Amino acid sequence: MKRILLIFALMLSIIPSLSFGASDNVYVIEISGEVNPGMLNYVRENIEDANNKNADLILFEVDTLGGRIDSAEKISQEILKSKVKTASYVNTKAESAGVLISISANSLYMAPASTIGSAEPIPNTEKTLSYWKSLLETTAEKRGRDPKLVAAMADSSIEIDNLVGKDKLLNLTTNKAKELNFSDGTMNSRQEIYEDLGLSAVNEIITMRKLSDNIIGFISSSLISQLLLTLGFVGLVVEVITPGFGFGGFLSIVGFSLFFAGSIISGSTTSFAIIVFLLGIILLLVEIFMPGFGIFGIAGIAGILGSIVMASTSVNQAIMSIGISLLITTIIVALIIKYLPKRNLSKTLFLGTNLDKENGFVSSKEDTSYIGMTAKTLTYLRPSGKIDIDGKMLDAISEGRYIEKDKIVVVLSVEGSRLKVKEKEGE
Predict the structure, then answer these.
(1) Exposure of 19 in the CB half-sphere (CA atoms within 13 A)
(2) What DSSP element (H or E) covers 337?
(3) Where is the NfeD1b N-terminal domain (predicted)?
(4) Which CATH architecture has domain 368-423?
(5) For an engineered disulfide with 239, which of 12, 125, 249, 317 has Cβ 3.0 to 4.6 Å away?
């Protein structure tokens, strides 16, 4: 009986060491679509989860044309500091920001007929290119890859004999990357990668993006953020040229709010940018209700533009975004002014009835005795402003020309409570 119990105890001690029930946990993280703050949140969260659960491998399956440099840099940092071994699998393409993410992993594999390269930054200024190139080179050196190859992917001025000529960006095919020892192998599937890394009985944990990640990625993507900024400007202009608070104001609030929200969530800026923006709007409103174009108007415009610069990834990016938005806004507003009066909706923008004497409209304040009198401009007339006649401050509108402050003008006619004037000759 004692012998049977001894044998049974020995068997129990051996069973835990048997490998038939063991498995290697692998986290599969997809790097697909645009690289942006939404992807950063998704990658960061799953790398942290894999580290906390002592996974055996994190595999990044890459298929991207790139995206934001700031997001790619932060994703790279998360991969580099991971305690769990990492591998990237370029399955079709890894361009631009995708190059940095791919070379950040411990191992780099490529699927047949895939490519990696074409990592020129946009906008390609000297400062941006220098920083981006050094980031690529440093990461390549950390992972034992040729830094000159990744530099040539970003800088078209770099020539490599028998590989890439001047004014061309390096883009490596699967076979070329393996030939140059840039990749660690060509694999047809993820399973082949696991076998190459010595993993067996793999338990894949396929990660999924949360709804919040998708929303953040959507509003912070380069195209959508540009559209939101344009929407904000269009709504602002429409609100200014229409009476009362209406649809234009609503569009402006939505556009600017989502634009700044995307920047804050992505870490590109802080709430201070919103404070500067709101201050700019307030200063513009003060300027509208005060005669003349002065310090409030200039400060208001500076505040709005400055806040957009703070909310952008770089000054060059901000200038480009503002320029595109203002151009599109100008075109849209011009089309509104040209075509909207032909529709019933034009009544919200334009007064359809002429309030003139011929139609029986006469202002109770109309005083024709001012016709022919001279006056002094108290403010700039652009074309409306204030004038002084015998110590009385009156509303005036110029004949069409811009008239500076402290100029002598002559009253031509009376239009309701406003006097139509022109600058006196010789003054």
Answers:
(1) 5
(2) helix 315-339
(3) 25-201
(4) Beta Barrel (2.40)
(5) 249
DSSP, residue by residue, 277-322:
HHHHHHHHHHHHHSSS--HHHHHHHHHHHHHHHHTSSSHHHHHHHH
User: Cα–Cα distance between 387 and 171 in angstroms, integer?
Assistant: 68
What are the DSSP calls for 185-225, one per residue?
Answer: -B-SSHHHHHHHTT--SEEEEE----HHHHHHHHHHSHHHH
- The answer to whether 97 and 292 are in contact (CB under 8 A) is no
Rounded alpha-carbon distances, angstroms, from residue 24 to 313, 355, 416: 40, 83, 86
Q: What token pair was written down for 212?
A: 């919040």
Are 240 and 233 in contact by the 8 Å Cβ rule? The answer is no
**Which amino acid, residue 293?**
F
Measuring CA to CA, how many Å separate 174 from each of 93, 184, 187, 211? 10, 10, 10, 34
According to CATH, the topology of domain 23-212 is 2-enoyl-CoA Hydratase; Chain A, domain 1 (3.90.226)
Q: What is the pLDDT of residues 298-352, one digit of tens each?
A: 787 788 888 887 777 667 767 777 888 888 888 887 887 776 655 444 454 444 4
